[in-house]
Automatic annotation (TrEMBL), chain A:
MF terms (GO), sorted A to Z: metallopeptidase activity
Designated name of the protein: PrsW family intramembrane metalloprotease
Keywords for this protein: Hydrolase, Membrane, Metalloprotease, Protease, Transmembrane, Transmembrane helix
Domain of life per record: Bacteria
Species annotation: Candidatus Amunia macphersoniae
Residue intervals passing through the bilayer: 79-97, 103-120, 132-154, 166-189, 201-224, 244-266, 278-298, 304-323
One Pfam family cited in the UniProt record for this chain: PrsW-protease
From TrEMBL, chain B:
Organism expressing this protein natively: Candidatus Amunia macphersoniae
This protein's UniProt keywords: Membrane, Transmembrane, Transmembrane helix
Domain of life, source organism: Bacteria
Protein name: Zinc ribbon domain-containing protein
Bilayer-crossing regions: 64-86
């Protein structure tokens, strides 16, 4: 098969001055330097109509794949979305066939398996897959097992449900779980290669999914070892979907929120254009723990499983949107000195555009594409010189 | 000293600028204030998919489906096999096996049912009457376990078991799955039939849910059927806690000391 050749780059790039950052940048719908919308001169600086990792989507849109799997291109994201939908259908089908144990297992592993495939596809781990997987998915699963064993030991002996009280059940246990999910990605924080906000997000999400998988399986062990075919009710389906999907999305979002904000803060890639205390590290930590405690309180005081599931179903999309807001502005924040590189194909829209921090045509952040597929930015002369 | 309001920041060096700063950044000279019209009429050619590095997926759509579905199905099958293999088969020991804690010696109390003539002995120190009516009694045992005794006339043990199981509050005791029959079941000295269950306990007044073990047993003697329903926190220590009832030994006491009317 003959490799198709890209069209030759244009001889000269027409420049215009961005009315948001003031830089001379290639003409286009978006500023290649700051990512602002150049078409809408009124409110285009924050371009909330075009999520920086997936410009075809609005920021305020609760989409699991483009939020938790941001390195995927639009076309590939659709495939992952279909596989995820098929996985959820499989869970419902197994539950409908009265196969409670297989349905619970399927619910627990669908998202982690999909995330492992995502990590393999986009190679976030670069040249160190073993280290990254050990410190994220595997460590998360191990901590989840330990967490389940420890909490299960001192919560299973009582039937009256009030032995631990609201402070332990709804506050302490969710907080400990969240701390454990954030803990191991921190070991990758100082790694020189993993310096982007989306690296932090990916490591946090991977750890949270491993942790949740282990806690779902461990927490339901007494049901898994019941007879294989049992009378599964609608409550079983609700419980399985809550634990396998909704809890996983919530845990992934809260953990990704904290780790992404942490990466942006510590790795100092911010250009400080959109600094806001509402999207900073402290705010992200507060939001993450508040959500975990809030849902812990709902689970503690909730009179019915349906009410708890509804609460999760409301919170999960809101949390996804909040995470997208933080990611969106983090991607707009990240960047380097103004450099305009050679024309290369944009990973998202496939147009031959000058290589910059943002695609001038579709506005996708360069750091939101897979590393191996992303064109290299030209290095500033000062950065090439040894310190 | 009153400072002019900041109206923006230089995109190059980040220095704030005000309306009085002019058209250029005071620090680096970058033009900042002007808002020129956006150029139009530009075009960027679309590269053919084969030449775009991002289109060179390690996982094509087909491979994604194969690996994704294959991995999920393989994990479900393997883990299902594992949980089936490690599933506790129940103990060969009688449910009323002697307690590890030794026989209680003091503090017995007696519940006497006048309608059907059966009676239940229990330890007042660790067991309290939660409620009672003409047909039976509910006892709170130990650290949160519960057992109920209900009498009916007749010999329909199976019917009593079914109605007792249906009477369990499914909001409080969710996902009850049968573990298996209670081998060698007895109520008092009367042979009984019974089934053990596992499920989730959701406190009706709020609180942390948790795994629970349950047993429903019934026996009939002298035209009186007594059915017992007991719940206790679930324990994985199958060797010492038959059928996973964490306080099985304490529950066993009133069952063993149940007296049917006319029984020896």
């Amino acid at each position: 098969m003959t490799q198709q050749q890209p069209p030759p780059p244009s001889a000269a790039v027409t420049l215009e001055s961005c009315h948001h950052c003031g830089e001379l940048v290639p003409v286009g719908a978006f500023c290649g330097h700051c990512g602002s919308n150049l078409v809408d001169t009124s409110g285009g600086r924050s371009r909330t109509h075009a999520f920086a990792a997936a410009p075809h989507e609005q920021v305020a849109r609760p989409v699991v794949i483009s939020t938790l799997f941001p390195h995927l291109t639009r076309r590939h994201a659709q495939s992952f979305q279909l596989v995820l939908a098929a996985g959820i259908l499989l869970v419902v089908a197994l539950a409908a066939l009265q196969l409670v144990a297989p349905a619970t297992i399927a619910a627990a592993v669908v998202l982690p398996v999909l995330y492992l495939l995502y990590l393999y596809e986009v190679e976030v781990y670069q040249h160190e897959p073993v280290q990254v997987l050990l410190l994220t998915v595997v460590a998360g699963a191990a901590l989840g097992v330990a967490f389940t064993l420890v909490t299960g030991t001192f919560t299973s002996a009582s039937l009256n449900g009030t032995q631990q009280g609201v402070l332990v059940s709804a506050v302490l246990i969710p907080v400990i779980a969240q701390v454990l999910m954030v803990a191991t990605p921190l070991l990758l924080l100082s790694h020189a290669h993993f310096d982007e906000t989306l690296d932090g997000l990916t490591f946090g999400v991977a750890t949270a999914l491993g942790f949740t998988m282990a806690t779902v399986i461990g927490g339901n062990w007494h049901l898994l070892t019941a007879p294989l075919v049992g009378g599964a009710s609608s409550e079983d389906v609700l419980r399985i979907l809550r634990e396998g999907v909704l809890v996983a999305v919530v845990n992934a979002s809260t953990t990704g929120l904290v780790t992404a904000a942490l990466w942006l803060r510590v790795r100092r890639r911010s250009r400080r254009r959109f600094v806001s205390p509402w999207r900073g590290l402290q705010a992200s930590v507060v939001v993450a723990f508040a959500v975990q405690i809030g849902l812990g309180l709902v689970s503690y005081y909730g009179r019915s499983l349906l009410a708890v599931v509804v609460a999760y179903a409301i919170v999960a999309p809101l949390l996804l949107i909040w995470l997208r807001v933080v990611l969106h502005f983090a991607l707009l924040e990240e960047g380097a000195e103004l450099e305009i590189g050679d024309a290369t194909a944009c990973p998202e829209c496939h147009r031959m555009v000058p290589t910059m921090v943002f695609c001038p045509a579709c506005g996708v952040a360069r750091s939101a594409s897979a590393r191996q597929a992303r064109p290299e930015l030209p290095m500033p002369a000062a950065a090439e010189a040894p310190a | 000293m009153v400072q002019a309001p900041v109206i923006g920041f230089c995109g190059r060096c980040g220095a704030p600028f005000t309306a009085a700063s002019g058209s250029f950044c005071g620090r680096c000279g970058n033009p900042v204030a002007a808002a020129p019209p956006v150029a139009s009429g530009y075009t960027y050619p679309v590269a053919p998919p084969g030449s775009v590095p991002a289109m060179q997926h390690k996982l094509s759509r087909q491979r994604l489906w194969i690996f994704g579905a294959g991995a999920v199905i393989a994990l479900v099958v393997i883990m299902t096999v594992v949980v089936v293999v490690v599933r506790p088969l129940g103990t060969t020991c009688h449910f009323s096996c002697s307690s590890q804690h030794g026989p209680p010696l003091v503090g017995n109390s007696l519940y006497k049912n006048d309608k059907f003539g059966y009676s239940v002995e229990y330890l007042a120190a660790s067991t309290k009457v939660a409620s009672s009516d003409a047909n039976g009694v509910v006892l709170n045992v130990g650290q949160g376990s519960q057992i109920s005794f209900t009498g009916t006339s007749g010999t329909d043990v199976d019917g009593a078991l079914q109605s007792a199981f249906k009477g369990i509050d499914s909001n409080t005791f969710q996902d009850l799955q049968p573990v298996g029959p209670v081998r060698g079941a007895e109520i008092g000295n009367v042979p009984a039939k019974g089934t053990a269950y596992k499920g989730n306990f959701v406190p009706p007044n709020g609180g942390a849910s948790g795994p629970v073990g349950a047993i429903v047993m019934a026996a009939s003697f002298n035209n009186v059927t007594v059915v017992t329903v007991m719940f206790s926190g679930y324990s994985t220590d199958q060797a010492n806690q038959p059928y996973g009832l964490a306080e099985g030994s304490s529950l066993d006491y009133p069952i063993t000391l149940t007296h049917f009317p006319g029984s020896p």
